[in-house]
Each structure stands twice: as structure tokens, then as C-alpha cells.
Amino acid sequence: xxxxxxxxxxxxxxxxxxxxxxxxxxxxxxxxxxxxxxxxxxxxxxxxxxxxxxxxxxxxxxxxxxxxxxxxxxxxxxxxxxxxxxxxxxxxxxxxxxxxxxxxxxxxxxxxxxxxxxxxxxxxxxxxxxxxxxxxxxxxxxxxxxxxxxxxxxxxxxxxxxxxxxxxxxxxxxxxxxxxxxxxxxxxxxxxxxxxxxxxxxxxxxxxxxxxxxxxxxxxxxxxxxxxxxxxxxxxxxxxxxxxxxxxxxxxxxxxxxxxxxxxxxxxxxxxxxxxxxxxxxxxxxxxxxxxxxxxxxxxxxxxxxxxxxxxxxxxxxxxxxxxxxxxxxxxxxxxxxxxxxxxxxxxxxxxxxxxxxxxxxxxxxxxxxxxxxxxxxxxxxxxxxxxxxxxxxxxxxxxxxxxxxxxxxxxxxxxxxxxxxxxxxxxxxxxxxxxxxxxxxxxxxxxxxxxxxxxxxxxxxxxxxxxxx
Length: 470
Known about the structure:
The chain has helices at 4-17, 21-40, 50-64, 70-80, 82-101, 130-201, 207-242, 270-277, 279-300, 338-403, 409-443, and strands at 108-116, 119-129, 307-316, 319-329. By secondary structure, the protein is α+β, with helices and mostly antiparallel strands. Strands 1-2-3-4 form a 4-stranded antiparallel sheet.
């Protein structure tokens, strides 16, 4: 049987070998980086020194020197977003708590010197909380589970930033592409208005026709101003996510969105993938395990709150030293620990239900995002394969009729306005598909927000209306 002295020696050795918090935090960050790399193929960086800063700066210079792809934007954000860098500090805080959990409380030392006439009495004592020593491995195990949850939360923050940045990139590219297209519409409207003015002067157009063309030109000018503002807003949101400022904000984006894939992704057992891979489900499991462990520990110690063991040595003038030990035990006369046990039990039930709810949310989100992805793909494909080609054929027929002097110039222009609405809707559908594709990619690994399509820039483009056809 292990004596008290041997147990203290073993625990002291464990405290020493537990190491400092720095290496523990570094290992935790490597775990987080490996988790994100496994899921999205990219790693974050933790900037803690000038060398780290210079390495990140070199990578940023290389990425920002060319038009940013979606992957490039995500990599910039993972390296440079300061809020993410701040979240990495949680790893250091958790590492400090974990390291401290393996270290027993400091012993207490007492010293007293008493005099009575020529006699002097000296009392010396050292005490340590023996009960906390006995429970040290259990408490450290609980803290270790909590630290695992901290790592999962940090990895979730990394993945959430990656998803937000990717969607912001699609929105920014689409917004700039929309602004260019609206600019082309405005230029065409200006030409039409000038044509109508000249035809009105020679008597080939009515005053009503001239007013309609002038109204369309004025409306196109207003839409262009709004589209440029929204393009700047979308670009700034992407800039904030990437943590850029100063000269770095002059980064370039591609002129257009990527083309649709030839076929949609066919995801099988997406619910099972979400349950197995989502980090919020894993966090809920870790929280339940830690709570279950704490609940068992609370029940085991409900009647014992304090158990202190001490060694004493008393000296008195002219007498031999007194040596011995003392034990201090809190008597459960009023508090039998039932309140603590009840609290722990309900914490456990709370964790059980939280895990069940997280699983339900993950399954539902997986189904919803897959349906949204397929609908977005089918709609965008429909515009590109059916509507736009038909519209182009109709426009070609209108040109033939115009060349044969079967229709007027203004009928040809009215058909061009009809084509504007279809092209703008196709661009919007293409953007929405890539956002849905991002949501589907992340829904099986981390929670996905639903705010990706807010502030649609394509809402500025004209819809088909009766007025446009006249």
C-alpha cells in the first residue's frame, strides 16, 4: 500500500513533468491546425513573434500580388484576421488551467514563538490538503476534457471564418460583376436616349417615346450609383474578414464568377456525415463526458469537503521536542452535500439534452443545405442552358426583322431591355449557387450561418415589366 509520503512524492513528480503551459498551448494549436487542414486543406497561423509576423507578411505579399481566388482569400483570412488571432489566446488560457490542474495546492507552514518568563516555547507546523491530493488525477482528467472542448471551439472559429470569407468572396466578385454590367446598361440607355432625342427632332419619334427613353436612362444612372456603393460594401466586408488595411486593401478580384460545374455533387448519407464530422456535435459530446465525470466525482465526495493533514513539531525550553500530526475534517452537520449533488445531476441532464438538440440541428441543417444546393444548381443551370440561349435566339430573330425593316428601332431596343432582366437573374442565380456550395461544404464539419446572401447586389438590376416592353 502506498504511504502518504510516497503519494506526495508521486504527485509532486507529476506536477513537475506536466510541464509549463507554453508547450501545451503550442501542441493544442497544432491539433487545431491539423483539424482545419484535414477539413478544408488550409492551415491557420498563430502570430506570437517577429519571425511569425515576417513569415505571414511574406505569404500575404505573395497572395495579394495576383487576383485573389476564393482559396487565396480564405488563406489570407486564416493568417491575418486579428479576431481569430485573439481566439487562439483561449488555447493559452486553457493550457494554463490544464497545467495548474496537475499541480497540488501549496502546503501551509506555521511558526509560533511563545515566552513565559525565562521559558521559550516554539511551535512549528506544516499542513497540506490531503483530500485534494487524492482527487488530483480526477480533477486533472476533468480539466483535460474541458481543454479538448476549448480546442474544438477554436477549430470551429477557424472554420466559421473560412466559410464566411469564402461566401464574402463570391458576393464581392458578383457585386463588382453586377456593377460593370449595370454600367453597360447605363451606357446603352444613354445612347438610346440620345437616339430618341434626335429622332424626335426630325419627327420620327413621339414626345412620349423620348420621355420613356430619358426615364430609362435616368433610372439606369441611379442603379449604377447604387450598384457601385454595394460593390464597395461587399468588398469592404471581404477586406474586414481578411484583416487587411492600408496598401493591402488594393487587392484585385477576378472579373467574373467561376463557371458552374458540369454536374452537381451527389452527397450520400449527409446526415451521418454531419453527426460524425461536425465540431459542434463533438463539443457537445466532450461537454457531456466532462459533466458526467464531474457528476460522479461530486457524488463520491458529497460528505467530505475538507480533509487536511498536518505535521507539527513543538519546542519548549528545558524539554524534549514534541512531534506529531493533526487532521482537520469538516463535519457535515448542516450541509450533507445533497444540494451539490442535485446541482451536478441537473447539469448532467442539461448536457444530455444539449447533445441531443445539437444532433437534431446538425441533421436538419445538413438536409436543408443539400436541398438548397440542388435547387440553386438546377436554377442556375436552367438559366444558362435554357433561358439565356432562348433569349439570344429571340434577339437574333429581332435583328433579322429589324434588318428587313419589319420592326422599328424602338422595338429592337425594347427586346434588348427584356434581355437585361434575364441576364441579371442568371448572374444572381450563379452567385447563389456558389454560396450554397460553400454552405454544403461546411455543413458537415461546422455550423453554417444563413446570412450569406444578405444585401444582394443584383436586386438593383431591372426586372421584366410591362413598361420595358413598350
